[in-house]
Write a structure and sequence with these properties.
Layout (H helix, E strand, L loop, with lengths): L1 E2 L13 E5 L2 E4 L4 E4 L2 E2 L4 H12 L7 H8 L5 E2 H14 L10 E4 L3 E4 L3 E5 L10 H6 L12 E4 L3 E2 L7 H16 L5 E2 L2 H4 L9 H8 L3 E10 L2 E10 L5 E10 L3 H29 L8 H14 L2 H17 L4 H17 L4 H18 L4 H14 L2 H14 L4 H13 L3 H14 L6 H14 L3 H14 L4 H13 L3 H14 L5 H7 L9 H19 L3
Parallel strand pairs: 10-12, 10-13, 11-13
Antiparallel strand pairs: 1-6, 2-3, 2-9, 3-4, 4-5, 7-8, 13-14, 14-15
Helix pairs in contact: 1-3, 5-8, 8-9, 9-10, 9-11, 10-11, 11-12, 11-13, 12-13, 13-14, 14-15, 15-16, 15-17, 16-17, 17-18, 17-19, 18-19, 19-20, 19-22
Length: 548
């Protein structure tokens, strides 16, 4: 069951407080939870939930109250809410069985029932706004989150007709909804961001008021049957523009245009924030890195697509998980890095697939709404031969983030190897369209090259493989496709040269390795023959290239 409600804001309380209960202390100014003299590592979202329960301990808090306050009204599953409640209980020495501090009130909600002593925090560091200022402008629900925050301001209607405001606002709302599905970001709810108009107000000031690092702005101009939409992403702290794009479209179907623009904008915005966050993390001394920063650093290594960088990424992710064992995104990316190492020939399947499975399942348990977690589980299921479940997990990842180019590309390969070449090719090409400015662009080019090879389009496969290699010179998967496609196209000299380059980046390449590392026999009726055909086709290509 999923809970969908209108976006809104619940009161977190204006004062910075120190709550003492049992042998614990929670200081909202320092965002710190302690047991005695020991600090307790707790996920920011769980800390927000616990703070909200403490501030509202005089009443039963409903599920909708929590979703409005903690998730800004986004749609979340019951399992996600339950996992956060359980994490809050665990952090303060409670449990679902005992419920001595956080009690579940059947069919009503939750209440903090422990004895609490509350006082003003001694070191509240945020200056209080003047009373008249607070009446003029709404305030964000909490202090700047540990995750990067982003606000989408209402797109300006540049048309002569004020009645067209609905379209510009619709674009803004669609982008908010799409970004809210990504678990990487804290996305300010519509009613907060729409209360701000950039106008003459400096970007830095808007960012401070909303408690975000990034702002998305834009404009819409309609003329007859055409529409021009501009969008830009800015760093709120510096005012620097990180990305900007213009889209010109026909208005044959207004909703289709809104969907297309939203998808393109989200696909472009996401990697820009990754890059900006990585730069921010690199400026911090290593001893000050938090879990988010460690994941950002890990991703920069992961995207370089080399054996050494993949190992470096895994070490950073393991450090992030040591800080927060329930950090779903770190667990999910770690799982993906393990099964990707298998695909690239960097790691022994017997070691990497079990490691990927353990991390992927932990990620799903920690946060079933993270699209990377579902991609991780899908990849594991592919290697375990659980085809039907793999397809379902790919679908779940794309439901959560339709602009997830890596998931789209992997899904395309899966469909292609099942004999559904046209569906697979469409999915893979869509990934390529989504990723022109994406760090996954090289990987997507290599994957689409493989799909074209399976479809017998050898020259297109070679072109895409070369493009992938141009972007990432150590991309073993692209060299494999180039070698195979050249051999099947009768270009034996090119196949020989490509095979030599492939051996340089993947020394363990052999016919036996290809046979063992193509997906195992699937469990769906009629699909085993399609998988066998794809594997035999690949093996024959490498025999022609001279591989033994």
């Amino acid at each position: 069951m999923r809970i969908d409600i209108c976006r809104g804001v619940a009161d977190f309380g204006d004062d910075e407080m120190e709550f003492r209960f049992a042998d614990h202390m929670l200081n909202t100014s320092r965002r710190e939870l302690r047991r005695g003299s020991s600090a307790i590592a707790v996920e920011p979202q769980v800390l927000d939930l616990l703070t909200y329960l403490l501030r509202n301990r005089d009443r039963v808090v409903t599920k909708n109250d929590l979703i409005t306050a903690i998730w800004s009204g986004r749609s979340v599953s019951d399992s996600t809410l339950t996992s956060r409640i359980n994490a809050a209980r665990k952090a303060i020495g409670d449990s679902g069985a005992e419920q001595k501090l956080i009690r579940t009130i059947t069919r009503k909600g939750f209440r903090f029932v422990g004895d609490v002593r509350a006082q003003a925090a001694e070191n509240a560091s945020l200056a209080r706004p003047a009373a008249n200022a607070s009446s003029e402008q709404p305030r964000p629900t909490s202090s700047l989150p540990d995750r990067p925050g982003i606000a989408v301001l209402p797109f300006a209607n540049m048309s002569d007709d004020p009645e067209q405001d609905y379209f510009s606002h619709g674009i803004s709302e669609d982008i908010i909804t799409a970004l809210s599905k990504l678990r990487w970001f804290f996305v300010v709810a519509r009613n907060w961001s729409f209360a701000r108009r950039s106008g003459s107000v400096p970007i830095k000031r808007i960012g401070e008021q909303l408690g975000v690092r990034y702002l998305v702005e834009g404009s819409v101009r309609k003329s007859g049957a055409r529409v021009r939409i501009t969008a830009q992403l800015s760093d709120a702290a510096t005012g620097n523009q990180l990305w900007a794009e213009r889209y010109d479209r026909d208005l044959a179907d207004v909703f289709a245009v809104q969907d297309e623009i939203t998808e393109a904008a989200v696909a472009a915005i996401t990697p820009q924030i990754y890059a900006a966050e990585t730069f921010r993390a690199r400026r911090k001394p290593p001893e000050n890195l938090d879990a988010w920063d460690l994941v950002m650093r890990a991703l920069t290594h992961f995207w370089r697509v080399t054996r050494e960088d993949n190992v470096a990424a895994q070490k950073l992710l393991e450090r992030a998980i040591a800080i927060d064992p329930n950090y779903a995104h770190a667990l999910a990316v770690l799982a993906v890095s393990h099964f990707f190492a298998t695909y690239m020939g960097w790691a022994d399947r017997a070691d990497s697939v079990p490691a990927a499975e353990a991390a992927a399942m932990a990620a799903i348990r920690a946060d079933s709404e993270d699209p990377w977690a579902h991609l991780a589980v899908a990849g594991v299921y592919v290697y375990l031969g659980r085809t039907k479940e793999a397809l379902a997990q790919f679908g779940q990842a794309l439901d959560l983030n339709p602009s997830f180019s890596l998931a789209q590309a992997c899904y395309g390969v899966m469909l292609t190897r099942l004999g559904r070449w046209e569906d697979g090719a469409n999915a893979a090409r869509r990934a390529l369209r989504l990723s022109p400015s994406d760090p996954f662009s090289a990987i997507c080019s290599g994957i689409v090259a493989h799909v074209e090879f399976v479809g017998g389009n050898y020259h297109e496969a070679m072109r895409l493989a070369r493009e992938a290699i141009r972007q990432r010179t150590d991309l073993a998967g692209a060299y494999r496709v180039l070698t195979a496609a050249a051999a099947m196209a009768g270009k034996i000299e090119l196949a020989t040269v490509s095979l030599r380059e492939l051996r340089g980046v993947q020394p363990n390449i052999s016919l036996a390795w290809i046979n063992d590392n193509m997906p195992v026999t699937p469990d769906e009726r009629g699909h085993s023959s399609a998988f066998s055909c794809a594997r035999d086709h690949y093996l024959e290509a490498f025999r022609r290239a001279g591989l033994d």
